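Dear support,

I submitted the protein below through the web form. The confirmation email said the job was done, but the results page showed an empty box. After a refresh the structure appeared. I'm attaching both so you can tell me whether what I see now is the final result or a partial one.
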Amino acid sequence: MEDWEQLVLEQFPDSAWLLTDIDRTKYADTFNILKQAVSEEWYASDTGLARFQAAMSGTSFFKEIKTQRIDQQIIDTVGTINFSGSNYGKLVARILNYGLTGDDLKREAYREAFRKDDNGNYANASAVENVRKSKLYNAYVNYGKSYFVNINDNLVERSLMGKISMEDVETRVQEIAKARYQHLQPMLDKGLSMNDITQNYRDYAAQLLEVDPNTIDMSQAKYERAYMFDENGTKRMMTNGEWAQTLRTDKRYGWTQTENAKSEARQLGNTLAKAFGRLM
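What the results page shows now:
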């Protein structure tokens, strides 16, 4: 390492990554500014530091960041930038050095977001939190939910980083569902999800119990009876009549508190009253 490079490490530590992470041939003017800054001791005054920042922003490396909207593409991928200065700079350098665009750029951003330190902890915890709120991340989660499968965070992260495809994740989810609901495999093989298979049960329950269908989670134990009915050790789906009877008679569903139940009770009472009236 040359003397001027050592001075960069000492006097401009936040910019030290430029020495090791960007292409010196492609961005020669950036290195010339670094060398000039230490040789003229710009670090010795506020005016000099301001000059350094202005000069660096005008170099080819930083102009290319603006021209290609690298910052915005990273933000669009992983949310607000929460990486430390040097780590973010290294990420941008990798993107520019390798000419990453589109999905390749996104995968590199995800790799930085999900990077872990030597202790196995996320180095960019806030970035991870942002990603887990994104539409794409939740598309994976919701796909799993449609098969009543909880997708492991690590599985989603591996896919976002390009280590496995989204199709690989979908296949794994489907295989888990088939193993769990073996009696439903013929329908799952036809491309139906568990949401598809159980929708009629859900809609009927919502109507009978007078609730919003979206509040019913058919993966819950009390609802899975509809499609996991045990008959002499063999699992099968309930008939509509069996499901109706279950909803009406099992106190866990609360049917007796609905207006439907109260109306039926009144009608039954009136019928009995009339019957007893004729007998008297």
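Response: this is the final, complete result; the empty box was a page-load delay. The mean pLDDT is 89.
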